[in-house]
Amino acid sequence: MSRILNLPEVNFAFFSFVFHFVWEFVQVPTYAGMAEMAHWPATLFCARATVGDVGFALTAYWITSFAAQSRFWFRTPQRWQIALFLAVGIALTVAFEWYYINISGYLVYSDLMPLVPPFGTGLSPLVQWILVPILVLFVTRRQLGGVAQAS
Predict the structure, then answer these.
(1) Between the CA atoms of 54, 55, 58 and 62, what dihedral angle is there, to the nearest 10 degrees?
(2) 13 pLDDT higher than 60
(3) What is the per-residue pLDDT across 96-107, written as a single tens digit (0 to 9) for each?
């Protein structure tokens, strides 16, 4: 069991879930109708969004691991690795927000959501994909500091 808990992917997924789940609740007022939803449906809605965020985080982690040729790049990350990790998450966020806002209508921004050109992506999800992944990198690095460096 400790072997599984020491996998970087498990740590990235766990910490991403925890921090993104909190962020989803903080940004509730920036999406139309979310603040008025009943507690349990809103919680499930945020949980589904968080699972998507974890998928983005793992995708960004794996792409960066491939480019860095190491699953442990986060231990002493170079600037380009952090930039790539963030860029992948931001690109996925912009693409999915655009789809859910403009194509499917699954999400609607409230008047409280500042929009960022050129795609009109909400500021909150963009800030989320800068702050939360940096926090996840930091916590994962601290958590796995003593783990043997096997790729």
Answers:
(1) -170
(2) yes
(3) 999 999 999 999
Count CA within 13 A, CB hemisphere, residue 58.
14
Neighbours of 150 (CB within 10 A): 8
**DSSP line for the chain:** -HHHHT-HHHHHHHHHHHHHHHHHHHTGGGBTTTTTS-HHHHHHHHHHHHHHHHHHHHHHHHHHHHHHT-TTGGGS--HHHHHHHHHHHHHHHHHHHHIIIIIS----B-TT--EETTTTEEHHHHHHHHHHHHHHHHHHHHHTTTS----
Residues 6 or more apart in contact with residue 40 via CB below 8 angstroms: none
**78: its two tokens:** 């170079």
Tokens 């966020």, located at residue:
93
- More confident site: 43 or 145: 43
Query: pTM (2 decimals)?
Result: 0.89
- In the beta sheet, which residues pair with residue 121? 116
